[in-house]
Amino acid sequence: MWRGPDAAHDSSFAIQSVTVNSERRSHRITYSSRVPKLWNETVDAHRTAVRDAIMRTTAELAVQHGPASVKMSQIAEKVGIARATLYKYFPDVDAILAAWHEHHVTDHLTQLTALRDQGGPPAEQLEAVLTAYAFIAFHRGRQDAEIAALVHRGEPIARAQQQLLSLFRDLLAEAAAAGALRDDITPDELANYCLHALTAAGDLPAEPAAVHRLVQITLAGMRRPSP
Question: How far apart are CA 186 and CA 173, in angstroms?
């Protein structure tokens, strides 16, 4: 049997054979046929794209009409999929909105971690992370109250808050060790102080300067007291 120079390296070819009997001898004929591959990466990318479209569309509809008015059939039609397909991804509207919020929380934690990992003096890292979180809280405070009541709950949100507290605590400990912050209060206590103080950014007037002032006041309360 002759095979092309690349055939041995192309697993998309399936080698098949048949036996042809004649009066004198049997001939074994081997041939190759192209068999399409189903790449897991392509399937996963498609599913992720559909899931993202479902979450984004549901959030938009919830903002426009209120979460109680959004129907699964409405979401499926707007996304361009069958309702049966939609139910393979999510059981109901509440689950979609919860997943949408969890996705945003994960993105926020990734952003904050990236700021922490940029390097520099601990005090500067701390200020950058606290400022970014304050603006996250600022924009979250402008979220629809009905949607907020649905999504700001549950085990994933509690887990994300613990990750956030750990991030704050580690930065605070490093800044205190460098002499930039007071060391008479534990980093755990200061982390909780930061979390609750900066969450208040959600109630601030719609101006960035107010967020920056809140961050500076929060930092001032943690600096090492003058002798």
Answer: 8
Structure tokens given for 113? 């971690």
Count Cα neighbours of 70 within 13 Å in the Cβ-side half-sphere: 26
Which residues neighbour 138 within 8 Å (Cβ) at sequence distance 6 or greater? 201, 202, 204, 211
Enumerate helices (H) and strands (E) in the chain, giving the number of each: 9, 2
Lowest-pLDDT range, 81-95, 121-135, 155-169? Answer: 155-169
Q: Checking phi first, is residue 4 left (phi over 0); if not, alpha (psi -120 to 50) or beta?
A: beta
SS3 labels along 154-216: CHHHHHHHHHHHHHHHHHHHHHHHCCCECCCCCHHHHHHHHHHHHHHHHHCCCCHHHHHHHHH
| Contact status, residue 66 vs residue 146, Cβ threshold 8 Å | yes
Choose among 221, 197, 191, 212: nearest CA to 135: 212
List pLDDT tens digits, range 181-210. Answer: 998 999 999 999 999 999 999 888 878 899
